[in-house]
Write a sequence for this structure.
């Protein structure tokens, strides 16, 4: 089952990347992001992609430039996530055949991202748009647009967001923080998957 969840491993180190990723994949999340403001992020992506690219999508977050897109691709990443909507980054990502998840918050940013070929919209920070904002913006987006909520989302509020029109989530500090034990990351990932599946199982 391909769940519409992205595990955000901000701060992960290369020496722990493989173990943490294995735990998250075992829990049922198969799209994993290493933000570029982590220690040696490209090295972590390289390690993760080499070990898990046959069973998971490994990508980068906080990607701000075309040059960074190229570096992520060279490291084996298969998707790019950004905190902002920058057309050059979206287009460069898609030209390389990678998934593009640009950060958006306004209708203008949403439609700009879609026009440039974004794979899905990353609403960030989700708490700023809010449930009512998501309902309003979902009403004008083209049918089939994938919308992922990021920032302040976790297993306690998945159901509210999904009912309002979200398709999935990027999960950061609720899942992983630097220094967190692998066992605790695994337990958190299992909770996220259970909450996501519970909603979809009832639909």
């Amino acid at each position: 089952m391909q769940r519409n969840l992205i595990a955000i491993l901000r701060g992960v180190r290369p020496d722990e990347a493989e173990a943490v990723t294995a735990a998250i994949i075992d829990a049922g999340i198969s799209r994993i992001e290493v933000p570029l403001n982590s220690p040696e992020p490209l090295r972590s992506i390289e390690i993760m992609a080499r070990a898990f690219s046959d069973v998971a999508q490994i990508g980068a977050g906080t990607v701000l430039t075309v040059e960074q897109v190229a570096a992520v691709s060279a490291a084996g990443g298969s998707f790019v996530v950004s905190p902002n909507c920058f057309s050059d980054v979206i287009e460069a990502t898609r030209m390389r055949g990678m998934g593009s998840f640009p950060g958006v918050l306004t209708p203008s940013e949403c439609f700009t991202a879609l026009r440039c070929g974004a794979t899905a919209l990353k609403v960030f920070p989700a708490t700023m748009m809010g449930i009512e904002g998501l309902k309003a913006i979902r009403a004008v987006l083209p049918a089939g647009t994938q919308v992922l909520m990021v920032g302040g989302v976790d297993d306690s509020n998945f159901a509210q967001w999904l009912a309002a029109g979200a398709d999935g989530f990027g999960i950061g500090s609720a899942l992983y923080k630097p220094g967190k034990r692998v066992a605790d990351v695994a337990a958190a990932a299992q909770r996220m998957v259970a909450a996501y599946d519970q909603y979809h199982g009832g639909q």
About this structure: The CA atoms of residues 33 and 59 lie 5 Å apart.
